[in-house]
Amino acid sequence: MKTIKVARPADGVTLITLDRPKARNALSKALLIEVAGALDDAEADDAVRCVVLTGDERAFSAGADIKEMPEGGIPMWAEAGRLKAWKSIERFPKPLIAAVNGYALGGGCELILLCDIVIAGENARFGFPEVKIAAFPGDGGTQRLPRLLGKFRAMMMILTGDFIDAATAQDWGLAVEVTPVDQSVDRALEIAGTIAQNSPIAVRMAKAEVLMAFEKPLDESLSMERQMLLWQTEDHDEGIAAFIEKRPPRFKGR
Ligand code: CAA
pTM (2 decimals)? Predict the structure, then answer.
């Protein structure tokens, strides 16, 4: 049985909905592999310019599926199928927007940390409760959360396991906007629609460049920014021509 729904609600935009409502969208191995597969499809399809990822009104995702955790042996996050799925999600090169309602916990919050823009419904609750089951974030949370929020806020969340609400998440920079619950997906789709009108090649390069800020020393990423060959693309010529001719651009992604 499928654990996600994939739709194309607007030109250039794919909507992926996590669909295990009875398990609060816990990230089973099957679900992670389906999300990674849907993103691979979105990457391969030139018509897709942006992807929105969401859950339901009760939960974006309650995290790794605790019921799949083995009692012994290798930890679940070290299992090859899961690792491959997480890597695919991490490497998705097009913009990925999260529309978050309800719980976004543990691995669910780590999934959000791989998104590029986060819109939170007013009932969103973000947290890393792993310590309460004698674990700790195993899919990037211990590294990406402090880079995003700073040491003290990350420590507060990861060491206490307490949740923060949508307003705090926005204040701390974990969400860019807070909307009424029934509007978070629409707002994310609206942003996706705006991104979809921009040059796909420029958007893709811009995403890669911004992510470098978290990975490389400033000197290195600045020099890579300067080396980018975007100025030699057809899209760049089209963008300049459209501006001068006062008409909308027709970007081809070349
Ligand atoms: N894994 C598996 N099943 C889960 C789950 C999870 N992470 N979270 C919820 N469920 C299941 C519950 O077991 C329950 O199933 P049954 O109806 O069969 O009993 C169903 O979803 C509904 O859950 P609740 O009745 O608890 O619903 P609630 O709305 O009262 O509470 C909740 C929701 C706060 C999310 C609570 O379920 C909860 O605390 N879940 C666990 C959250 C958690 O610890 N996440 C971190 C997991 S570890 C991780 O992500 C990363 C890692 O690297 C180790």
Answer: 0.94
